[in-house]
Design goal:
Distance between the termini: 80 Å
Order of helices and strands: HHEHHEEHHH
Largest sheet: 3 strands, mixed
Number of domains: 1
Number of helices: 7
């Protein structure tokens, strides 16, 4: 009886410790949200983080551009989409092969979390042109990359500016 009780207590304690460790495990977005709040004028007041969804690269392109635009683009290369933020559903969408906990994808996660903070800070709903939200996201992404000595590709600010200018058409 004593051995069974000891075994039960050991298993219970290990299970309890594992549950507590899981509960106290930081969310992959915590460090990025903290950095964004410290390096921008965004506020974060504990709003629910976006849900995460994974798609094939082809599916993400269709979500971003629409099937018709992709078919019309034919020989023109549309920029490849690695991630998107859906502000209506508060969902971050990534390609299936992306591990959002790795340092190498941090710049992408930071960029998309800027859109989350734009949404929670009521910037998204007060903009007339959704493309205008990209410039601040790319600027913060580039600053994060600079501060973290991140080797990922830096934004092409000519493209970013042209994207923003498309709002005035």
């Amino acid at each position: 009886m004593g051995n069974k009780l000891t075994f039960f207590l050991v298993v219970f304690c290990i299970g309890f410790y594992g549950a507590v460790a899981y509960i106290n495990k930081p969310h992959p977005f915590d460090k990025h949200i903290k950095w964004l709040v410290e390096n921008s004028e965004f506020e974060y007041n504990g709003e629910t983080y976006p849900s995460i969804a994974y798609y094939s690269s082809a599916e993400l392109q269709v979500i971003a551009y629409g099937r018709e635009k992709i078919e019309k683009a034919d020989s023109q290369a549309l920029p490849k989409i690695k991630a998107l933020y859906n502000h209506r559903e508060n969902t971050l969408m990534f390609t299936k092969e992306m591990d959002i906990t790795e340092f190498k994808t941090g710049y992408i996660v930071v960029h998309e979390l800027v859109h989350f903070l734009q949404n929670t800070n009521n910037i998204t709903e007060n903009t007339e042109c959704i493309q205008s939200l990209e410039e601040p996201a790319y600027k913060l992404q580039a600053e994060w990359q600079r501060q973290h000595n991140h080797p990922g590709p830096y934004p092409n600010f000519l493209f970013v500016r042209l994207l923003s200018l498309s709002c005035s058409r």
